[in-house]
């Protein structure tokens, strides 16, 4: 009897902690979303419902440009880093590969170093080489920090790879190209999609490395938002943030759906 | 007759070693783009950081004159204070995340399978939400005329708004908020694999909940604790955005100082480089220590 009450207490404690943490995680975000519809210039109390700030968002050319920049960088860096990830993961499949240790080290080290150091080192590289900072330097930086993630995600997917399939295909006379597109690629696909989504979110989310590698005139959304809230005018930031949160939810749902579709397709 | 099998053996050996070296070349070719990319955009930049740390600052740029001033300053009392702030913030954040994250991870790990996925998604959504938006939402929540103060005043708990924004408390709070999922997810992944029958066995043998926790659950989840702590501690050491947006200018953290040295005029790039390398050095020492500890732990468990 005593033990049951003790374990109930234990469970109750965990449930309480869980609920508290959930509240902690969601209250600020929910308030932000609610106040994006608040008809007030500053955040003091509820002054009625409005779409005004969403309309303002639509009219703001700087925000639209920042959005386009963010998407451009995200799509390009996702494409390049995913292709790099596929190639490297295939290369690392060979367990006797003499460069295995070197490449693994180069891929893991950026992950265990604070982001800001990659920002600093790239800023100095672009200063040293006298390259004009802008879209290209931001793109290079984003590809650099996405590579580690795409390689690791795709590689972990290949770890449990059933090589007897490849051997069987080879015995039956299949050419390497055929083997890649008909066997390896479909098996890698869930990993590739997971890697691409991760790279895409990382790219959209990044502030600090972009901050160090973009010159004046090339703002992504995080850079724009930071500059705006530092200088105080925040009316449109609420609505912009709400849209970005919506986008996050959309990505989470897509990922879950895609995984289901892929698993059932394969 | 007798030489035939030997020859055959030689032939096949030759063939397989040739195939092996062919595969090796293929692997080099496949990994070459990434190898090249990371040498040019990851390793070489650090070489430049090392070079710059020994140069003389100029207002907008650097002068190529050798100097040790940057290191001399980096180890002066002012900057040691900055290091102290950053380290204590990172340690505090890690501990609080562990304290809050453990029961949450435990709860999710023991939930029913269907519920488990929903709970995990609930943890992941804030994790995927843009960092700057999460920080911004706290600014709204904690502001002098913000929601928290409104609610507390309306409830009659306080009469004057609390000034939490722009304090060290706000920085710690938001740090914990941002890094909590990084702690919960690795903890969850070890707790999920934990064999809970061990706990029942221990309790059947008379151990109470607390004892069972400290003798079984905690030691078996040590890898998750290490991984989670690392994922929180290392980025927390270099945090820039959170102290910048919710902290004050009296307590500066390392990330802020490094950024100011690069972004603000007069620039001091040698100083930024020296501070970055010092931070890198601390991170490297920490990782090596943890790795040694991990190896020691593992070999002890096997023995």
What is the element layout, followed by pairings?
The complex is a heterodimer of chains A (266) and B (303).
Chain A: H1 2-35, H2 52-59, H3 61-92, H4 100-108, H5 115-128, H6 135-159, H7 163-171, H8 176-205, H9 208-213, H10 221-230, H11 235-265
Chain B: H1 3-53, E1 56-57, E2 62-63, H2 69-74, H3 77-110, H4 113-128, H5 131-142, H6 147-154, H7 168-193, H8 196-204, H9 209-220, H10 222-237, H11 241-246, H12 254-263, H13 269-302
Antiparallel strand pairs in B: 1-2
Computed structural class of chain B: mainly alpha
Question: Based on the structure given, which CATH architecture of the largest domain in chain B is correct?
Answer: Orthogonal Bundle
Shape of chain A: globular
Helix content of chain A: over 70%
Characterize the structure shown.
Chain A has helices at residues 2-35, 52-59, 61-92, 100-108, 115-128, 135-159, 163-171, 176-205, 208-213, 221-230, 235-265. Chain A has 266 residues and is mainly α. The longest helix of chain A is centred in the N-terminal third of the chain and has 34 residues, at 2-35. With 303 residues, chain B is mostly helical. Chain B contains 13 helices and two strands; from the N terminus they run αββαααααααααααα. Chain B has helices at residues 3-53, 69-74, 77-110, 113-128, 131-142, 147-154, 168-193, 196-204, 209-220, 222-237, 241-246, 254-263, 269-302; strands at 56-57, 62-63. Chain B has a two-stranded antiparallel sheet. In chain B, a hairpin with a 4-residue loop joins β1 and β2 (62-63). Chains A and B meet through α1, α3, α4, α5 and α6 of A and α1, α3, α4, α5 and α10 of B.
